[in-house]
Amino acid sequence: MHRVFQDFIDSLQSAHDHSSFSAAMEAAASSLELSCFAYLALPSRVTGRPRLISTYPEEWTAHYMRSRYELIDPIINQALRTTEPFQWGLDLPSVKHSLAQRQLLDEATQFGICAGFTVPIHDGHGPVAGLTFAIGQRNPAFEKFVRSQARALQLMAMFFHAHVRRKLSNEQESGGALLSPREFECLEWASQGKSAWEIGCILGISRNTVASYLENAKGKLGVRTIAQAVMHLAAASKRKQN
Fold first, then answer.
1. Do 35 and 143 reside in the same domain of the chain?
2. Of the residues 133, 152, 167, which one is the last residue of a structural domain?
3. In sequence order, which residues have a C-beta less than 8 Å from that of residue 94 and are 6 or more positions away?
4. Is the domain of 126 the same as that of 59?
5. pLDDT (tens digit, 9 = 90+) per residue, 1-37?
6. Could you say which of 146, 167, 188 is where a domain stops?
């Protein structure tokens, strides 16, 4: 665990955007034999969009963001009420859920998100955030590990949150969605008709990296195509000018 934690801290030190932060947590989770993760930080305004860094299926996260599920998500609701890490799902005791919440959980199950371990983050510097490791079926080894390593995982979550908040605080807002500087830059070039290859040449990065930034931007904006993301960007810019 010590070696994994040290590697994780080193990765956070060099992380500078959404993709590198996701890779840092994904590598740590994989080393600990944990499954997919999701970090979600609530917005400072009700009309804002949460920041999401996740290895959940993209189809699910895009649907989650479009549906504004963070407003009714029972896991987020519980994270708002407690500072202690908790397990949820499957046959674990839980509070009664509303019809909308049951629908959300049923939909998540279709994407292999049936239970998990969530670390609430209340750091006093802004809205609450949470880091979740999720599983698709009952796994006694997972449950035993998160119970025994709850404090270590809580510390990892807090370090992750602190680095994300500090390094991504200069993100651009577009219609309530927070885009990293690179995501915003790639989207602006795309709005001028540039291809991923051309944008890569302009910015000095690979075509695949550009594609990754554009995919992240689409997910945050809750759209399916680059054209829709560009329209979203143009509409947000127009609203700022009015």
1. yes
2. 167
3. 74, 88
4. yes
5. 788 988 999 999 888 888 899 999 999 999 999 989 9
6. 167
Is 141 in the same domain as 189?
no
pTM of the shown model: 0.72
Confirm whether 114 is domain-assigned: yes
Cβ proximity of 98 and 9 under 8 Å = no
- C-alpha angle with apex 62: 56 to 173, nearest 5 degrees? 110
Q: What is the 3-state secondary structure (H, E, C) of the chain?
A: CHHHHHHHHHHHHHCCCHHHHHHHHHHHHHHCCCCCEEEEECCCCCCCCCEEEECCCHHHHHHHHHCCHHHCCHHHHHHHHCCCCEEEECCCCCCCCCHHHHHHHHHHHHCCCCEEEEEEECCCCCCCEEEEEEECCCCHHHHHHHHHCHHHHHHHHHHHHHHHHHHCCCCEEECCEEECHHHHHHHHHHHCCCCHHHHHHHHCCCHHHHHHHHHHHHHHHCCCCHHHHHHHHHHHHHHHHC
The stretch 165-172 carries a mean pLDDT of 69
Residue 179, domain CATH? 1.10.10.10
Q: What is the per-residue pLDDT across 177-206, written as a single tens digit (0 to 9) for each?
A: 677 778 888 888 888 888 999 898 888 889
Asked whether residue 120 falls in the same domain as residue 188, the answer is no
